[in-house]
Amino acid sequence: MTRHHPDSLTLMEYSAGNLTEPHALCIRLHLDKCPHCQSRVDTLDSLGAVMMENQPKADVSESMFDSILARIDSDSDENEVMARVSVKTSPLQKLLGDDLNSLPWKRQLGDVSVLDISERFPGQHEQVVLQKLAAGGKAPIHTHKGEETTIVLQGAFADQKGVFNQWDFVVLNEQDEHKPVAVGCEDCITLSVLSAPVKLTGTFTRLLNPFIR
């Protein structure tokens, strides 16, 4: 079960079609495995359709959306939603195939391997990268020069904010400094969308920042 979800504003932007293709992919992957968020998006889609039809110029506050979503959280049948989303073909399979471990990974630093797939999203300015952290391995301590949106595709990792399991969703920015550790018995693979490169902050690894894209 997923425990870390996109916030209400992000789901609203997804429903409205305002997210870039890479960010929308991260949301879609989460929704395919999270009936809780899928039910919220279904409601936003329906609400948006009614607003467009009847009140195209209405000024609806975010607090109103939060109120609606809170009510949906208590009323929705998540088993029904899960049954509906589970039959969908994953966009990840269409993009990368079935075996993430067999991709042409490139060792970056220590226990971390990467695969940049930005070219698969032509016209986008963000960097889209797969990252693999070896089972039991640690990533160098770092922060971010911009915003990083990440979804866990396989395994799990832990940092000072908690444990992030498969299909969990997390957004980090320049105020966050962390050192992810892969937990469990398998490699942790994530998909990240970065508006700017990461910034290594370790005593020695910071010397490598000029070489980090």
Automatic annotation (TrEMBL):
SUPFAM superfamilies: RmlC-like cupins (SSF51182). Pfam families: Cupin_7. Residues 102-191 form the ChrR-like cupin domain. This is Anti-sigma factor ChrR. It comes from Marinobacter lipolyticus SM19.
